Amino acid sequence: MRPRSLIAITAALAAGALTLTACGSRDDKGGSDDKENTTVVIGVDAPLTGQNSATGLGIQYGVQIAVDDANKKKTVPGVTFKVKALDDKAIPATGQQNATALVANKDVLGVVGPLNSGVATQMQQVFDTANLVEISPSNTAPELTQGKDWQTKKSRPYKSYFRTATTDALQGGFAAQYAHDTLKKKKVYVVDDKQTYGAGLAKLFTSSFKKLGGKIAGTDHVNTGDKDFSTLVTKVKNSGADMLYYGGQYDESQILTKQLKDAGAKIPLFGGDGMFSDTYIKTAGKTSEGDLSTSVGVPVDTIPAAKEFIAAYKAKKYPGDYGTYGGYSYDAATAIIKAVGEVVKDGKVPDDARQQIVDQVQKVKFEGIAGPVAFDEYGDTTNKQLTVYQVKDGKWKAVKSGTYDAG
């Protein structure tokens, strides 16, 4: 998903010395020209190659368009924004290394990402220790904002972490409700990829489906990178399940659904937002017809405010899938830009800019291109909208949007 963004630099003026601060750089003259502006970098961490890269690239370029818009409109006088995108390859340890690198770059005043909840678990403390704001457009594991005991006692572990995507506590139940009440499925086989996101989502779907009176035909696990699911397919067929629910990313599910259908099991595969990508349909082909996924928010192409964003993404021929998290990435970057505008005045970056920006993001409230943007006391988005999509005639079609009361 992506070419590299330019690393942030500040041009040295021939007539004046460069004044440095703890978190940013500026020239003494100021002015509207980029060369005379303070450079503020927004970091991006996502899988830009390999696993999950289609959605990772959508994140990178969603941020890039937000930055381009801010620079064009001179949203923050005296500031030129740039993007520094790092590839975590969907590997937690790499994400942690990237977090350390972004913290070390004094010009980075905010970060958008990561894509994967498992990667986020290794990045949060690094950013929090440095008081560097992090906004994920896609993490959905509840414990990231509400603590490991979130089901019994919510406690926010990191004040610098926010997200524009709603959580699996709602997504899992929303999917279960649709499967049971709308599709009238009674017996579901549940599989996950053993990762933080996938396993958590599968668990929440299972719990909600059983509460509704549905039965679990069986459970199993796969490894990320697996390509041969013949043994699993046999188990699913023999179980008599009328649906397969998958907790994980499209990389495995797009292969699993094809092998399932080719083996004669004509049942739909239902997954979460990690599966909601055009790449899933391209790889699975006709066997994806009828499959379903949930995703956060409402379809970005139905929101009038997102019209210019979509046009810009297509015009620049950016790689990746903008429809999954592109809008949420744009809004996450915009939240950081607005916070910077409250802290950096006339290009002057205070020594405690990073901490001030964390505080300002907590207060942010605006109408984003993917819906309203604001954060609750845990750093979670207040936008709880979700959508069920189904593959119809080779495309993801929204079949239901709404909210879910987890009770």
Mean pLDDT: 92
Whole-number radius of gyration? 22 Å
Structural category: alpha/beta
Low-confidence stretches: 1-32
Task: Report on the architecture of this protein.
With 407 residues, the protein is an alpha/beta fold. The protein folds into 2 domains: 18-166 and 300-374, Rossmann fold (3-Layer(aba) Sandwich); 168-296 and 386-402, Rossmann fold (3-Layer(aba) Sandwich), CATH 3.40.50. 37% of the residues lie in helices and 21% in strands. It has 13 helices and 16 strands. It has helices at 53-73, 92-104, 117-120, 124-129, 143-146, 168-182, 196-211, 230-239, 250-262, 278-284, 307-315, 322-343, 353-363; strands at 18-20, 25-27, 38-46, 79-87, 108-112, 134-136, 161-163, 187-192, 215-221, 243-247, 269-271, 292-296, 365-368, 371-374, 386-392, 395-402. A 7-stranded mixed beta sheet has the order 9-8-10-11-12-15-16, with helices on both faces. Strands 4-3-5-6-7 form a 5-stranded parallel beta sheet. The chain has a two-stranded antiparallel ribbon with strand order 1-2. Strand 10 (243-247), helix 9 and strand 11 form a beta-alpha-beta unit. Helix 6 packs across helix 7 (196-211), helix 9 packs parallel to helix 10 (278-284) and helix 12 packs across helix 13 (353-363). It is globular and about 65 Å long. Residues 1-32 have low confidence and may be disordered. Keywords: Signal.
